[in-house]
Specification:
three-stranded mixed beta sheet; eleven-stranded antiparallel beta sheet; elongated; 2 domains; mainly beta; 5 helices
């Protein structure tokens, strides 16, 4: 699916300069209002969403134990909806920059994103793009998020300059690397993936999508050719878009559980340093970073909530999940997950083991001892279809 972004911007700037003493502040205020539109150039949608799921309306042969009474399984075709736009938002930014003294300056950016995609496209009506499952729904501590928009402070920091020494204190984005599209050494901050990223405004590089964090950054110029730099910054993860929103990254038949992983590292700090210089006509740099990976890793997790099968990734009764073993295996593979191993993550506890073992045995599982179920592909397809075609149809997987 190819998309493009259209921007309409307006810039207004006013300045007020103080006079009299060295401590008088020089302030400037600038702002921008821009409409950003991402347009579909073909009829393909994001296959991670329910409305563009390639299995919608597809009938498959059931491998389940009840196949005699229900020989086929069909994911409802009624879920399919098309869209012409993937982004239809208004961006408002206000920048406040002030010189506090000869060595100190202050910089604050207020950013507002108001996404009207749910108003112009029924396929995304009511979908959640911005609210997160951690930090009280916010992507960062200095953010107010709603389903269709957000207001935040991507920058709010003080700069100190004295001779060869430069320091920056506060909420900031740290950019290491200047190449467009390829973030080779730009490894400090994660990315906010809730908005259009590819083919964005080139002059902004990743400045709109780097996730800011509270930190201290500094550099020291050793001589005309060499400088050293270091930072320490509070961990902030990359921010994922909500389920069934235009830029969903993981199939929405699976529930992504982010809060538990975030709680384990939310108080961690990252740090790193680098040195840059010139050797003859060549520019060189070396850097080292110790960080928690902001992007995380998708892995199977135990299902939570009503309808969960104890000791498994499966949850029944959602109506928006997986409808067949064929869809399960295909969707898991699309997400780079092993669909077969989803049943192996934990021993089935208590009475759940009896039911799981009964179904596994009936499906011809090679090993289904008490509390455990070992499956091959044939028995897994049988077990999944038995589960998905139960009265509480529409299970989901948890990550």
């Amino acid at each position: 699916m190819i998309k493009k972004i259209v921007g309409i911007s307006a810039l207004a700037t006013l300045g007020a300069a103080g006079a009299g003493t060295a401590l008088a502040a020089d302030w400037s205020v600038s702002g921008m209002v821009r409409q950003e539109i991402a347009v579909n150039t073909n009829n393909d949608g994001n296959i991670n969403n329910q409305q563009s799921n390639p299995w919608n309306g597809v009938t498959v042969q059931s491998n389940g134990l009840g196949a005699a009474g229900q020989p086929t399984i069909t994911r409802p075709a009624s879920k399919t909806q098309s869209s012409d736009f993937n982004q239809f938002l208004t961006r408002v930014e206000v920048n406040l920059d002030g010189k506090l003294s000869e060595t100190w300056s202050a910089h604050v950016k207020v950013r507002g994103i108001f996404d009207e995609i749910g108003d112009v496209e029924n396929a995304f009506k009511g979908s959640n793009t911005y609210v997160q499952p951690y930090q009280a729904g916010k992507g960062t501590p200095l953010e107010i998020a709603r389903k269709n928009g957000m207001i935040d402070l991507p920058n709010a920091y003080l700069d100190y300059n004295s001779g060869p020494l430069w320091l920056r204190f506060g909420n900031q984005q740290i950019a290491w690397g200047e190449a467009l599209f390829f973030r080779v050494s730009d490894v400090v901050n994660g990315l906010d993936l809730r908005r259009h990223l590819v083919l964005g405004v080139a002059s902004e590089e990743y400045s709109d999508t780097r996730v800011p964090g509270l930190g201290l950054r500094g550099s020291y110029r050793v001589n005309e050719n060499w400088d050293v730099e270091g930072f320490t910054q509070k961990f902030q993860p990359s921010i994922l878009p909500g389920a069934n929103s235009p830029y969903t990254l993981i199939p929405t038949q699976f529930t992504v559980q982010e809060k538990a992983g975030y709680d384990e590292v939310k108080n961690e700090w990252n740090f790193g340093f680098r040195t840059r210089g010139k050797v003859g006509d060549y520019g060189v740099q070396a850097f080292a970073v110790r960080r928690n990976n902001p992007d995380g890793v998708y892995r199977w997790a135990l299902a939570q909530g009503p309808g969960s099968l104890p000791g498994s990734t499966l949850q029944a009764g959602t109506g928006d999940g997986v409808y067949s073993a064929a869809e399960w295996m295909s969707t898991a593979a699309h997400a780079r997950l092993d669909g077969l191993s989803a049943m192996h993550i934990n021993q089935f506890p208590g009475t759940a083991a009896l039911g799981a073992n009964f179904v596994a045995n009936a499906c011809g599982a090679p090993n289904s001892g008490l509390g455990t179920v070992a499956l091959d592909l044939k028995s897994a397809n049988c077990l999944y279809d038995t589960f998905f075609s139960s009265p509480a149809v529409g299970g989901v997987g948890d990550l």
